[in-house]
Design a protein that fits this description.
Structural class: alpha/beta
Number of domains: 2
Strand order of the largest sheet: 2-1-9-8-7-10-11
Strand content: 15-25%
Shape: globular
CATH class of the largest domain: Alpha Beta
Helix content: 25-40%
CATH architecture of the largest domain: 3-Layer(aba) Sandwich
Bound molecules: NADP nicotinamide-adenine-dinucleotide phosphate
């Protein structure tokens, strides 16, 4: 598929005008052809208006038609697997094989949401039948289902340019819910974004859907993103990126005359608590396993296990040595963008200023833009005294925390802000401490992992990729897993309606064969 540099506004390919940008190959420092079109408020407006026009027909597609559309996107993604992975490699410097796996993951996500749509459980159909003889007053018939919110704006992440970007889980779950999508491409991977956008654009044409179901726009700075968030026809926003960017967009949306939900996923250090018996029995294995995972994607992952905490005692030295050995073997690797690299360098300088001691370092960078793997250590008292030590540094660095005793372990656990995940490593002898730690972690995270690491993330019905602020701006929802669809739905109750005017999920004959809650009882189709 040829990368042309166009923006995709509905079925229209909008070519580059006066203002353009080129993708940067962060490995070579060279710009890549072609020039990409940049837009602003007018392009945002066109894309949103088209999405609004598409909404009524798209949100009322039946399960078979919508699921077939999602499967078609999956097939088309699989068909461009090689070229998509190759372009992502050019624009990020990360391995092609990693991106092939990302394409597979994205295709799998679209197929999984096709199944969700066919199952129809997301509609959460509820029927409370009329009680004409109820005393002292009769009750009318009440029926509820979930409906799509409306046009949704999706800000793609920089760090997973396929699975968290244009054709990633946010887009799949919004389209599954029945919401047209306006994708704000991340400027770190414009060609990768365009290929994914064309896949969706072509699927829309083949499926005979309204062209406004999907648009892909980009801009030179904040203007286009701000225009999208401000647009009166937009009904929700999703974002993956920095806390500063996410909160700026969140606040903006809350200041609209009609505030709308903004689901941001921002920052997490995913603390790992190694309890005493586990530390003594297998500290080295945990230390090296954690360091390996922390360096995946050059440490540019929301689920990076960035902090390991353990009470000083048998096994601590072995844990540190094993983690240091992993880090020392790591080559310096190109980071996603010069900006992300500079932020990483500033972050580790700050960490040293905050008193962290360097206990392991990978190969020194040979080229500009490469991130060096670094392992630091602090005491529990230092971690508690300096909030910055509990914050994310986006890149290949890990912090070991040497705690004085179990009380300090609980205190440290309470000191973290909201997290996407936390892990505990425990033997049977640790279960007493684990049982006390669990409610502390539950309050602060969306996922608690036992004797494993939280990266990588499975996509299941039970997945939560969310958590209290600042992991996300709304801890009630997940952005990964089949529950992600719930961000784009709202309940509507139909009161006292004749059967033929009810939406199919709520009709008496149950034509969609749904499980429904009828008069408080879950009933089979
Ligand atoms: P970012 O700077 O937050 O940008 C993400 C997207 O949001 C971009 O498309 C950007 O568009 C847009 N944006 C940001 N602020 C905006 C604003 N005020 N108004 C309108 N649009 C706005 O994130 P990034 O470029 O991906 O990386 C920067 C840092 O984010 C990293 O160093 C890292 O700390 C963090 N990050 C964390 C995660 C994670 O999973 N924890 C993932 C990615 C990034 P423009 O660039 O066009 O303005």
């Amino acid at each position: 598929m040829k990368v042309t540099g166009d923006m995709l506004i509905g079925a229209a390919n909008v070519p580059a005008g006066a203002e353009t940008m080129k993708a940067l190959n962060p490995t070579t420092g060279q710009l890549i052809e072609p020039p990409f079109a940049l837009g602003g408020a007018p392009e945002a407006d066109r894309a949103v208006r088209l999405a609004d026009e598409a909404f009524d027909s798209y949100s009322h597609t039946g399960p078979a038609e919508r699921a077939a559309f999602l499967d078609l996107i999956a097939d088309k993604l699989a068909a461009v697997r090689g070229e998509l992975a190759e372009r992502a490699w050019l624009e990020t410097g990360l391995p092609v094989a990693q991106f092939e796996a990302e394409v597979d993951r994205s295709a799998d996500v679209f197929r999984k949401f096709a199944t969700v749509v066919r199952q129809g459980r997301f509609l959460q159909a509820v029927i409370d039948r009329a009680q004409p003889d109820r005393q002292p007053a009769p009750r009318m018939d009440h029926r509820l289902q979930k409906v799509a919110l409306g046009p949704v704006v999706i800000f793609g992440a920089s760090n997973f340019p396929i699975s968290y970007s244009v054709a990633g889980g946010d887009t799949a779950s919004a389209l599954a819910a029945g919401c047209p999508v306006i994708s704000k491409a991340h400027n770190a991977h414009p060609g990768t974004s365009e290929i994914q956008g064309r896949v969706i654009q072509q699927a829309i044409a083949e499926a005979g859907l309204h062209e406004g179901v999907f648009s892909l726009v980009r801009g030179p700075g904040n203007e286009i993103g701000e225009a999208l968030v401000d647009h009166p026809l937009v009904r929700a926003v999703t974002f993956t990126g920095s806390e500063g960017g996410g909160m700026a967009l969140y606040r903006r949306a809350q200041q609209r005359p009609d505030p709308i939900p903004v689901f941001t996923e921002m920052t997490s250090v995913n603390p790992n608590f190694v309890l005493p018996a586990a530390l003594a029995a297998r500290g080295a294995e945990i230390g090296s396993g954690l360091a390996q995972r922390a360096m995946y994607n050059v440490g540019q992952a929301c689920l990076k296990p960035a902090v390991l905490l353990a009470v000083d005692g048998p096994g601590f030295r072995e844990t540190r040595e094993a983690a240091a050995a992993e880090v020392q073997e790591a080559a310096a690797r190109t980071m996603l963008t010069p900006g992300i690299h500079d932020a990483y360098v500033r972050g580790v300088q700050r960490r040293e200023k905050d008193g962290a001691v360097l206990v392991g370092a990978g190969a020194a960078p040979a080229r500009a833009g490469e991130g060096q793997s670094l392992l630091y250590e602090v005491t529990g008292a230092e971690l508690l005294a300096e909030p910055a030590l509990r914050e994310e540094i986006f890149g290949p660095t890990v912090l070991l925390v040497r705690l004085a005793d179990t009380d300090q372990l609980f205190e440290a656990a309470r000191a973290f802000r909201g997290q996407l995940s936390a892990a505990m490593h425990a033997e049977a002898a640790d279960h007493g401490i684990a049982g006390r730690l669990l409610p502390i972690l539950e309050r602060r995270t969306g996922r608690v992992v036992f004797n494993a690491f939280s990266i990588s993330q499975e996509i299941t019905y039970a997945t939560t990729h969310g958590g209290p602020f600042p992991a996300t701006s709304d801890s009630r929802f997940t952005s990964v897993g089949m529950g992600a669809i719930e961000r784009f739905l709202r309940p509507v109750t139909y009161q006292n309606f004749p059967d033929e005017l009810l939406p199919p999920p709520l009709r008496g004959a149950n034509p969609l064969h749904l499980w429904r809650l009828v008069d408080g009882e879950l009933t089979r189709p």
